[in-house]
Write a structure and sequence with these properties.
The structure is a single chain. The chain is an alpha+beta fold and 263 residues long. Helices cover 14% and strands 25% of the residues. The chain is built from three helices and twelve strands. It has helices at 6-27, 42-45, 230-240; strands spanning 58-59, 65-66, 92-101, 112-120, 126-129, 137-143, 148-156, 159-160, 177-180, 186-191, 222-228, 250-254. The strands form three sheets. Strands 1-2-7-6-11-12 form a six-stranded antiparallel β-sheet.
Length: 263
């Protein structure tokens, strides 16, 4: 009768033990190989832990307010309309993209997160006071899958950028107003302050998809940007022939709106 020696049994058992260990490491969420360990970012481990309690809104160093009380609150991406016309296309606010920049050790400066947008006019020129929407810009980043807000700021100001040199702000015209001509959009940059980012995220990963390597837009955050100016109300009234009373002076941009109704 054929019998295996103890050494043969050991040789056969090693691969089985290794396989079992790897399976356990990849299965349990607390394991270092599961992507949920202490070194994994929020995009890798999913949503951050629930807050121990409500946070308070806080003033931002550069002006404005961090709506930290809304962290992890699952708000509808499009804000409640302040009047008629916010879905009209003349004028309109469009998204040019967003992204984080880390200067690293070679270039001085803290990390930055910038949303790029543009104001368009179709029928006639639109004149916006400078600085654009001073202290009236709002910016929200909504996490996917009902995660709630990852960042929220009120009272920001937009910076007009040079189309030929995207990194160069445009000087304020002598008239004190920026002209948005038909076919010539006004390019805007809005900086997200670090203080407006909710716990569990930073400027560098606040817009990370979950999972990070997804190709599905539904797995990624939704950005909501609003810009307000009394000239928007007057422009909408002139284009549509409606009375200015009841018309909103706010431009609203939502990067991706759900197909379902809020109701």
């Amino acid at each position: 009768m054929f019998r295996l020696s103890p050494r043969s049994w050991l040789i056969l058992a090693v691969p089985v033990i290794v396989l079992l260990v790897l399976t356990a490491l990849l299965t349990f969420p607390s394991s270092p190989l599961s992507g949920a360990g202490a070194g994994a970012g929020p995009g890798a481990r999913g949503r951050p832990p629930a807050l121990a309690g409500p946070l308070r809104d806080a003033p931002l160093p550069g002006g404005g307010t961090a709506r930290l009380s809304k962290c992890q609150v699952d708000e509808w991406p499009r804000p409640v309309a302040l009047g008629d016309g916010e879905r009209d296309t003349d004028p309109r606010l469009t998204l040019g993209g967003w992204g984080a920049f880390d200067a690293g050790t070679k270039t001085p400066g803290p990390p930055r997160f910038t949303v790029h947008a543009a104001v368009h006019a179709t029928d006639r020129p639109l004149l916006l006071d400078a600085p654009v929407s001073r202290g009236r810009v709002t910016l929200d980043i909504h996490g996917p899958h009902g995660e709630g807000l990852r960042a929220s700021a009120r009272g920001l100001t937009a910076t007009v950028m040079d189309g030929a040199r995207p990194d160069k702000p445009v000087q304020v015209p002598p008239s004190g107003r920026f002209r948005v001509a038909p076919g010539k959009p006004l390019l805007l940059d809005v900086e997200l302050p670090a203080g407006a980012v909710c716990p569990g995220y930073t400027l560098l990963d606040v817009a990370r998809c979950s999972p990070a390597d997804t190709n599905d837009a539904a797995d990624c955050p939704v950005v909501t940007l609003t810009v307000s100016d009394p000239a928007v109300r007057a422009h909408r009234a002139a284009v549509t022939g409606r009375s200015p009373a009841g018309i909103s002076e706010r431009l609203v941009m939502v990067s991706l709106e759900p197909y379902i109704s809020q109701a």
